[in-house]
Structure formats: structure tokens, C-alpha cells
Amino acid sequence: MTDDEGPYGPLDAEAVLSALVAHRVDFVVVGGTAAIQHGATRATSDVDCVVATTTENLQRVCDALHEMGNPRIRAENVPDETAIELSKSLVNVDYLQRLELSTWRTDSGSVDILRNLPDANGKLLPIKDIPSLAVTTEAGLVIRLGTLAAIIESKEWSNRPKDLEALPELRQLRDNEPH
Amino acid sequence: MGATAAKLIRDARTSAGFSLAQLAELGSTSKATLSAYENAKKDPGATTLDRLLKACGLQLAAVPSGMATTPAEVSRRFSEPRQPPTGDDVSITRDGRRLETVADFEALIAEMSSD
User: Fold this and answer.
1) Domain of B54?
2) Do A157 and B85 touch (CB under 8 A)?
């Protein structure tokens, strides 16, 4: 998996995924990283994961974030030094339980932790309801990946310019999938 | 509410790309009834209107008079990005609050401490 340079520095997606796998986090990769695994060429600057929201799993997420290195909140209007200070109180299960979406910066790159993924109608799907498949990454990690159809639906719902730009290639990949 | 509801439902459905049959199924009603709503021949009532708009990805909300009820305003609303499912450097709480500033995070930390 290639490294991509985002606004918060390079993304080492394999390192991020490796930490999640090593800590036995129950997660499904969605968003741009999943699209790349499906064959998309568009670069992404973060790894988006929907996670199971049990206390045990969220503690594993925290452990994985620490393994990714120096985890701190990612917010445009929060300077990094302040983010590091605030994050001393935020890398914990209580915080993750309160968030629908938490955005993080780590030494391995940016990570977004989600509770749900929207389908085409905006219905929020928890991890157990997200259509997914198991894949092996270039580095040999076995991970669960949202299906191309699920990724397309979430981007259609999101309706942001960057998602709309990604859709033509994703639809072409979907149309070329073997049936 | 008749004519306004009719326009809202039709605009919501067409902007979401649904046929009458598709929205009828999603909104737990019949195609004929939905058509009657869209032609202001039948009043859906607030609960049904809310359900149909939600099926189109919209939330029925009270707004000051004069806001967002013309076709142009409704169309503009549909062209705007919806709540992001991922990233953009904004964390979002389960009750929909966006955490964007130091004050936002400090307020949440204070809540966590007091609970």
C-alpha cells in the first residue's frame, strides 16, 4: 500500500492497519483506503474505520492508537501542541463512546474512527450490518473491507465534492467486477 | 400544510432520485397515496411528511417563516454536502455536536469529568 502525503504528514496505511490487527480490534475499513484496496487510484490522506462499540473493543482501539504513535485529536482549528495536551484526556473509552466520528493524527498517519457507515438512504449501519469481505493486504495483513457497493453508497450519501469526484472511478470498478 | 407539503415531498423525491414507487416503498405508503400527497389532493400530516422526508435523507424542522420553502431554496439545500460520514478534521459527538475548536474539546472534557 503506498504512502500518501496528507495535510498532517505522510500516511503509512499498513502501519495503521497493522496496529489495529495486532490489538485484535474488530473493525471494517471504509472510505478512501478501502477504495484503494478495491483498485481505485485516487490517493487518500487517512484511514477510515468503522469499529465495534463494545467497551473491550474501544479499549483495543485506544491501545492501537498508542501503537500508531503519539495519538492526538485532529482538528483544523486546534494547534498540534494543544491537541497533544487535550488528548491526554481523550484517548480513552469514555471519549470514544461519546463520539459518532473521532478524527486522529498519529505518527503513522491520520485515522478516523466511526461508529457507523451510512447507506444510500442515510441509514447508519453499525459494523455488523456493513457488507464486507476479508482481504489480504500487500503486507499480508488480513482485514475486513467494506464492499465496493457499500463504499459507493456512503460516498453518494456524503455528497461532498471530494466524494463526488471519486465516484466515477468507483462506479467503473463496480461495473467491471466479476459477477 | 397541503400545497407546501406537496412541493416539499416532490422536490425531496426528485432530488433524491427516487421514483414514486421507490419512495412509496421506503416511506411505507402506496404509490397512489404518495401521488395524492404530491398533487396536494391529500394532506400527509406531520408524521407522514417527516417519514417521507427522512426516507429522502432530510429532516423536517421548524424554521423561521420565509426560509427555505421556495423551490430554488430547496434545490440549493439539496446541492449542499450532507453530514460527512468520515473525516474532514471534524469530530462529531453522538448527539451531533461538531468538535472544531479548543473550546469545543474543553467543554467535552469538562462534561466527561462531571459525569
Assistant:
1) 2-79
2) yes
The reply to whether A77 falls in a domain is yes
- Count CB atoms within 10 A of the CB of residue A139: 12
Q: Residues of A7-18 as b/e, b for ≥16 C-beta within 10 angstroms? A: ebeebbbbbbbb
If one counts the domains in chain A, the total is 1
Identify the CATH number of the domain in which residue A51 sits. 3.30.460.40
CA separation for the pair B79, B75 (Å, rounded): 6
Å from A139 to nearest chain B CA? 25
SS3 A104: strand
- The reply to whether B13 and B54 lie within a common domain is yes
Contact B85 A158 (CB under 8 A): yes
Range of the domain at A130: 4-172
pTM (2 d.p.): 0.70
For every one of its 179 residues, what pLDDT tens digit does chain A have, with 9 covering 90 and above?
544 555 667 899 999 999 999 999 999 999 999 999 898 988 888 999 999 999 999 999 999 999 999 999 999 889 999 999 999 999 999 999 999 999 999 999 999 999 999 998 888 999 999 999 999 988 899 999 999 999 999 988 887 788 888 899 999 999 887 76
CB–CB contact A90 B26 (8 Å): no
Please indicate if any CB of chain B lies within 8 Å of the CB of A102: yes
